Amino acid sequence: MNFSSLYSSISFIKPEITISITLILLVVFDLIFQKKKTIIPIIALLGLFISGIFVINELYRSGFAFSLGNKRFGMVTIDSFGSYFKLLVIVTSILIVFFSYSSSEIQKVKDRLGEYYVLLFGMILGMLFLISSSDLILIYLSMELLSLSSYVLAGFTKLRDRNSEASLKYLIFGAVSSGTMLFGISLIYGLLGSTNLYDINIALRALNVDWFTFYFAVLLMFVGIGYKISAVPFHFWTPDVYEGAPISITAFLSVASKAAGFAFLIRILKTALVSGVEPDGTWQMIHSFDWKTLIAILSVLTMTLGNFTALWQNNLKRMLAYSSVAHAGYLLLGVAVLSDIGVESVLIYFAFYMLMNIGSFYIVMLIANKTGSEDINDYNGMGYATPFLGVSFAIFLVSLIGLPPTAGFIGKLYVFIALINSKMVILAVIAVINSVVSLYYYIRVLKHMFLTKSEKPLEKFKISLPNKVFVLVLVIPVLVLGIYFTPVVDLAKSCITILGF
Amino acid sequence: MEGFPILSLITFIPIIGMIIVLLLPGRSEKEIKYTALIATALQLILAIILLANFNYSAGGIFDKSSFQFVENYKWIEVFGGSWVGTIKINYFVGVDGISTPLILLSTIVTFIATISSWTINKSIKGYFALFLLLDTAMIGVFISLNFFLFYIFWELMLLPMYFLIGIWGGPRKEYAAIKFFIYTLTGSVFMLLVMIGLYFSATQTLADGSQVFTFNLLALMDPSNYTATGILSPLNPHNLRFLAYIFLFIGFAIKIPMFPFHTWLPDAHVEAPTPISVILAGVLLKMGTYGIIRVSFPIFPEITRELAWYIALFGVINMIYGALVALAQKDFKKLIAYSSISHMGYVLLGMASLTVTGMNGAVFQMFNHGTITAMLFLSVGVVYERAHTRGINDFGGLASQMPIYTGFVTVAFFAAIGLPSLSGFISEILVFLGAFSVASIRVLTIISTLTVVLGAAYMLWTLQRIFFGKLNEKWSSLHDLTGREYAMFIPLLIIVFYLGIYPNPMIHLMNTSVNSLIEFMSANAQHITALAGF
């Protein structure tokens, strides 16, 4: 690798470099300003904004970075598909910084705020690399970077036993799944002699592979992915970790971490396992293995189990955890279509999912800040104590159900469009029945907030202006994009290019 | 009237009212109530202006040029890559002889429901905000000519209705509200699938000659717009049109509500506050049958023809079953709710006849049922507000205590039974005439006339138990109607009498459209059958 190619490679990963520099700055400033930690979030925001600008500026740039020797393909692939997900992760991170700032949970451990942000940036860095890496080794490394930071963050506050439980559970499940994944990677390397996704694709096209071993290895890798996106049956950690972790981290895991996982899943399908793309955008898979059915089964299991288990939850964080499992199922439907229109629906869905999910978690946090509880029975009459939060929460939940005129409806609509366009009617029927089931537990929250009377009179509580602004920043797009969704759809349509095919 | 966006105004005036209500402080109850009243009154006035400018000779249904007060604006435009066509969704609204009576009905019923809402005393601000939002959604459904727009308005009704029943309802309100929500959402998600399926089956040629998939209902009605491979295209030998029809029909049938999907209705009615019951029975139920006439029938004429007998069968089951169950009710409101189910059966039977007479009867029955049931529910509200009970057997002899009220209720009951000179008679006789003229459903029609007897039985029996006989001493303090209550009953009474004696204006209003619908359907049913090569 010569100097000029290294230089051009580095120009591809400016956002990642910015995040790394910010991470170092955070450590330094944490040491310098022992007492005044208010500067820390500001630096974090600054770093995220700069990195976001880099992503936006080069949204449609594409190329390979860090090619070894004279190989065509690099370890990092830059394309608009990856940039979209990176943008999503960065926007989510910016929201999470504000989120952490008003979370009383995080403010209670103010003296360790520096560590918190350093770890958060570790996660972000891991996600950004996971999204764009096209080499199994780099994928594994970024996945570990992401996971290790999140294990610590899940138990970060140490305020309750639940925190440690969450952290440990996360760690154990994570260790098993990443071990399994690593085993899969090693098998693939042994079979095909390369860890680069593009080289793997070329080797597979030659078709003289031991297919049984190969699929076994890929399935082992899927365990790692399934764990990241909390797909059934690898979801067991989700409710406990989501309930035990600080709520800002829960929100982050439920959106950004999942986004990175999905980006990786789609990338591996479309670069390593695809043999061609038809003019209408459907992918032909190598060896005509029936990925469609496999992913469809996973997605049906994921959403059905997520929705049905959410019905019995009384803790709002746990309920939202299962709801995020269910949403992973809807997103998997978009992947199961195995076509460009499916990818587009995933991109659209994620943008809306980010808004509504972070919004819901934020409101749960604001209420927990006041009442110290996430139990649904403590929400009785809450809609009258704080009409603003009540109505906003109603809008987020309606959006999560997928009813018009909210953004969530458009997300679901596009998934169904993708399904019906490829004539997967039965899956579409299962998915809509699932949305009806989900109605029950989402609406149950509204029932407690507005319909059930509180036993003890609730005093009205004021929401500070910044918090109000934050909620509005999320609510307004949910409503506006529900009626006028062109900008997001346009962006998503322009970002479905995955380099290679 | 050229260029004056009267339909958008009728639809969105309540939204403006809602915004004003939300901006007013919660204390100023009077201002909130008057804002709602003015908004609904403006709507009513605009609806009357609409009627005055209506061109009676324009058919509508499938022909864009004969729709009236059309507004067609670009709304959503997404330019796609090569693999899927550009998405273009227009804000496309317009009315014809089928939607105009229903717009008229909704504005009248909502206005009266607003007057009836005067007695609401809990969270007034929230109540009227939701009420007005519901109002917009209802009118929106009747004016939409784009399936996507139609669906958005259709779904927009659910949440306000959930809260209106759930917060301001009776003792079992939570159960009733969630039941309503789950039933109707189940129906509408299936409708969503059909909507997407239709979208991918038909293309529309734009002015610049390019082809795009379309949600435009009128384009979807034209068989020549369908693609060869579309999932719901008649040209595709493996099409799923039959399944789609069933899905769509279930979506609408839940709203009607058609047996066996009716169980949400009695619960919702019993628990809902009076004005919401009035809206529910008066307007919301009509959306099911309106949807069938506007969407299912013209888009799937060949399957409609095939299944007409079954639709008629379910209509007759609704009529008789509703009446029988009503006969057994001890709760005044539940009785009215079941009578609603029975009366909506007439609409189904009339539609299924696929004759001009029957269809006229069906649309007319929709209007009449809206006004008559509104009166019936208002009657229940009046007595419930005073006595705080709805048990039919708890009353007796109210006629001597509340003579004017008794008079009004008697008229409403007679109208519901279908007594000549009241509007219900005309529409029912039209339905029977239309249905009887079709040989295949003649037997069903004969059986269905039993409903008239049953209807008279439960209505008269109820009348006797509540108003005649010995006065229960408990009720000796009940006072007769107040001025506000007169204001609710009298307009409806006038309509019921007027259309009973001189139904021509209403029939004239819908006749051209009904004719063109029937012609269009029979022509297209043959055309599509030929296309599919059956």
Can you characterise this structure?
The complex is a heterodimer of chains A (501) and B (534). Helices cover 74% and strands 3% of the residues of chain A. Chain A has 501 residues and is mostly helical. In chain A, the strands form two sheets. A two-stranded antiparallel ribbon of chain A has the order 1-2. A two-stranded antiparallel sheet of chain A has the order 3-4. In chain A, a hairpin with a 6-residue loop joins strand 1 and strand 2. In chain A, helix 6 runs parallel beside helix 12. The longest helix of chain A is centred in the middle third of the chain and has 32 residues. Chain A is globular and about 75 Å long. In chain A, 59% of the residues are buried. The mean pLDDT of chain A is 88. By secondary structure, chain B is mostly helical. Chain B has one domain. Helices cover 69% and strands 5% of the residues of chain B. Chain B is built from 21 helices and four strands. In chain B, helix 3 packs parallel to helix 14, helix 6 packs antiparallel against helix 7 and helix 14 crosses helix 21. Chain B is globular, with a radius of gyration of 23 Å. The model of chain B has no long low-confidence stretch (mean pLDDT 88). Classes of the chains: A mainly alpha (501), B mainly alpha (534). Chains A and B meet through helix 18, helix 19 and helix 21 of A and strand 1, helix 5, helix 6 and helix 7 of B.
Mean pLDDT of chain B: 88
Q: Within the largest sheet of chain A, what's the order of strands?
A: 1-2
Outline of chain B:
globular
Radius of gyration of chain B: 23 Å
Secondary structure class of chain B reads mainly alpha
**What is the first-to-last residue Cα distance of chain A?**
26 Å
Give the total of beta strands of chain B: 4
Q: Strand percentage of chain B, roughly? A: under 5%
Secondary-structure element order of chain B, N to C: HHEEHHHHHEEHHHHHHHHHHHHHH
